[in-house]
Amino acid sequence: MAFKDLELIAPILVALNEQGYTTPTPIQAQSIPLILEGRDLLGCAQTGTGKTAAFAIPILQLLYTKKTPTRGISTLILTPTRELAIQIDESFAAYGKHTKISHTVIFGGVSQLHQTNSIRRGVDILIATPGRLLDLMQQGFIDLRHLDMFVLDEADRMLDMGFINDVKKVIAKLPAKRQTLFFSATMPPEIQSLANQLLTNPSKVEVTPVSSTVDAIEQSLYFVNKGDKPDLLLYLLKDAE
Ligand code: AMP
Description:
alpha/beta
């Protein structure tokens, strides 16, 4: 399977080629066609699986091929940390280089002026951390009435980091008629119930992280000095015979 088999438009294929990407990762191969069809998606995948491109590529294509012109922010991506938000923004810049689709990123801990200026100029895609987004919404800088795509990234980390109430407050302000993509590495009960509440008849895509261990493998840990490692290994191998 190659990116060209996913019915992607030329401006995106050219950009992917420039990035040196030829083959979609498993989450990309599974998610891109479903998102392009307009389906809601529940993606169980960690960072490192290529999940950012799995949602960024079809979002760019849907916006590029949209029949009616967009008015205001049409896509919101919520992610827990400033680092992830910046990475996602950079991905949209890279894959959307030949599309003229506008995007901006907002996060806390820095002055809001630069962020509110770019929002005022008008953006199609907004990437945000929950606290700063709520703050700017409360100040009246952000209008989500025309939103038709919502991505919740790293939902389980939102819960771990104590952002889940902010996330719920944002969700309460979103238009009901929209496509929703929900990504989480794990599905604890609170996250599963949020997914059930947010998604309509979702397709489920699951990829196991490369580093996961098969259940049948028993693991144990020994703390030894570096110089003793070969002896310990020999001892354990002999013991296992
Ligand atoms: P992510 O899981 O979205 O954080 O992506 C992990 C890394 O894989 C990022 O550095 C991407 O630039 C890279 N990447 C994503 N998709 C592909 C692909 N299809 N081929 C090669 N590298 C990729």
